Amino acid sequence: GGGLGIDYDGSKSPDSDVSVAYTLQEYASAVVQTVKFVCDRKGVRHPVICSESGRAIVSHHSVLVFEAVSASTYEAPHVSSPGLLSFVEHLGPEAYADYRNLYTCAIQGEYESCLSYTDQFKQRCVEQFKEGTLDIEQLAAVDGVCEFVSKAVGASDDVRTFHVNLSVFTSVPDFWGIHQLFPIVPIHRLDEKPSVRGVLSDLTCDSDGKIDKFIGGESSLPLHTLEGEGKCGGGYYLGM
């Protein structure tokens, strides 16, 4: 039972968490040869080997097709200078140290370090929010600061949120529960080159109902603009 992986991303690579570096034939041969070797050594008659390989058997039985009904673009709130000073005063020592490092790297033009400190700074502030030492307005200010830095160093992505007609918890609970990645592609407008990047958000009321990790280490998916951008376009389907 188990043990047979799936080449979800097509890379046939041992370095990928969603791939395997062996074929079905190689897997079967390794199992059969091992059993044969042990049986021959112990003088035992060769058995009939039955394999129940779980997901490797059932994962190919279906494709989930779902509709993107609308799309939106998030704009981080603008942070004024007085608001920024007030916000910095409420930072914990670790988050404040990240902020100072971020500020120094930005002044010195060290853009890669700048982005690294931006991610670290944001994560620390999220932890402070969870602890109750930052409120929701201050956490929004963190988004504003991080977005400003990303734009300043030319690393800001125009990633849109596509609202899709499914529930992550019902349809793909393994993505939420164990971070399993699945191939996801548009199955509409395949004669057009995708022109935007997007993440997928479901129509439930839970904020965790979002897919923002994709095969290949990507944090967004190449998609097409919807008819009547910013409105309820509909009629755009994806397969998973």
Question: What's the helix and strand layout?
Answer:
Blueprint: H1 24-42, H2 55-58, E1 65-73, H3 81-89, H4 93-108, H5 111-131, H6 136-152, E2 159-164, H7 168-171, H8 173-178, E3 185-186, E4 196-202, E5 210-211, E6 221-223, E7 232-239
Parallel strand pairs: 2-4
Antiparallel strand pairs: 1-2, 1-7, 3-7, 4-5, 4-6
Helix pairs in contact: 4-5, 5-6
In the CATH hierarchy, what is the class of the largest domain? Mainly Beta
| Radius of gyration from CA coordinates | 24 Å
Which architecture name of the largest domain does CATH use?
Answer: Beta Barrel
CATH superfamily of the largest domain: Lyase, Ornithine Decarboxylase, Chain A, domain 1
Number of strands: 7
Average pLDDT rating: 82
Strand-residue proportion: 15-25%
Q: How is the quaternary structure best described?
A: single chain
Q: Count every helix, treating DSSP H or I runs of 4 or more residues as helices.
A: 8
CATH topology of the largest domain: Lyase, Ornithine Decarboxylase, Chain A, domain 1
Number of domains: 3
Gross morphology: extended
- Written as H for each helix and E for each strand, in order along the chain, the element string is HHEHHHHEHHEEEEE
N/C terminus separation: 25 Å
Structural class by SSE content: alpha+beta
Largest sheet: 7 strands, mixed
Regions with pLDDT < 50 over 5+ consecutive residues?
none
Tell me the helix content: 40-55%
Pathway: Amine and polyamine biosynthesis; agmatine biosynthesis; agmatine from L-arginine: step 1/1
Family: Belongs to the Orn/Lys/Arg decarboxylase class-II family. SpeA subfamily.
Protein name: Arginine decarboxylase
Keywords: Decarboxylase, Lyase, Magnesium, Pyridoxal phosphate, Spermidine biosynthesis
